[in-house]
Each structure stands twice: as structure tokens, then as C-alpha cells.
Amino acid sequence: xxxxxxxxxxxxxxxxxxxxxxxxxxxxxxxxxxxxxxxxxxxxxxxxxxxxxxxxxxxxxxxxxxxxxxxxxxxxxxxxxxxxxxxxxxxxxxxxxxxxxxxxxxxxxxxxxxxxxxxxxxxxxxxxxxxxxxxxxxxxxxxxxxxxxxxxxxxxxxxxxxxxxxxxxxxxxxxxxxxxxxxxxxxxxxxxxxxxxxxxxxxxxxxxxxxxxxxxxxxxxxxxxxxxxxxxxxx
Length: 235
Ligand code: IPE
Ligand code: MG
Description:
- The protein is of the alpha/beta class.
- It is 43% helix and 15% strand.
- It has one domain (10-227): Undecaprenyl pyrophosphate synthetase (3-Layer(aba) Sandwich).
- The N and C termini lie close together (6 Å).
- The chain binds 3-methylbut-3-enyl trihydrogen diphosphate and magnesium ion.
């Protein structure tokens, strides 16, 4: 089978290289993440203009909690202030924000700001911005398996009825199409526990560009490259 969609419906991005960008510019590490928020804002707009339906971004991983506490605190504060500061623009620009992660460990001001952002943008439909925060792919699968096991225990689901779709509807991405294209910035070529189940058939794009420098042209280039590939899904 050869894909008929030239523009990927769902693009996922591992936004890596923020601290390296800050170091390269002689700035505090937190400035790298602040510039990263600007890059995200530009990229959401570029993706919407190109016709992407869903943009998932890896904002904070489950593993990121093991960074020095002042760094995780600064990132959580940035998530909170960015959510509140960009709310009006995102409402105006038709961006629907949703969350993807376990979220329980987020400080309550951050959680509340993100919940407000989701609620106030819920009716938008130009593009969906899916924020992976406190996200880990294996843990997501474990959460889904646990939810299914409980349903079986309670007699609401038969074990033999469990298939790909049953699992997909218990993941944090329930209701979203699978990513067609996964982009990683910052030069590393690994998946780092991101969307393990969902990216089974995704195309991958790696770039040396550090996330704060990522812009319209980088996104357009990755999508252009994607459009030239033939997806065969094993056939
Ligand atoms: C990715 O950028 C963003 C988060 C993990 C929050 P980094 O903070 O990992 O920046 P580098 O990769 O160390 O430069
Ligand atoms: Mg990194």
C-alpha cells in the first residue's frame, strides 16, 4: 500500500537540544527552554498552515524528573506561565490543546493552568496540540494493560476480545490517529520511550538543529521528505 496522504495527519516531535542551545549562547539553561516555547508556538502555526491535524510534542518525560530539582521546577513554572500567557492567542488561532501523560506528579499550579488551557481551547478545531507531559511510553502501555485487566476482572471485557484497537483506546492518545511522522531535533537518533505503541508505522526524521532554532522551514523540509517516501506497511 502506498500512502495517499502527502501531508502527514499527525506529526510528533521530540523537542531536544534546549540546554545545549542555551550553553552555546552563554545563557542560563532555563533560557533554552524559554526559547523552546517560542519554537513550539512557531511550529504549531506552521503545522496548522501546512494542514497537519495533530501535533504531539514531547515536552517533559517521566525520566526528566530525575534532573536536578531546580531544573524540573523551572520547566514546570515555564509550562504554567506559558499555558496562561498563550491561552488567548491559542483560543484565537483555533488550536485545541490536550494532554498526554500521567500528570499526577505535576505541581498543582501547572496542572491547573494546563487544565484551564485545555478547557478554554476545547471547541477549537484548526489543529490539535497534544502536549506529552510527564509522559513515558512503557508506563503508558502498563497503565492501559492495567485498565484492561481490571475490566476483565470485573467481567466487562472478555480477554479474547482484546486486540490492537482495544489497547489503543486505553492509551493517553485515545481518539487521535497514530503519528505518521516523528521528528527528533538535537542530533540524537533514538526514540527515548516516546509513543512506542503509536509509532509502529511512523516515518522518522532526524535533524541536528537544536529545538530553539527549529522553524517553519525545518518543518516544511521534514514534511517534504516524508511526502517522497513510500509507506508500505509491510506489504
Ligand atoms: C529537551 O531539551 C526538553 C526537555 C527534556 C524538557 P533538553 O532539556 O533535553 O536539552 P538538551 O538535550 O540537554 O540540550
Ligand atoms: Mg535532551
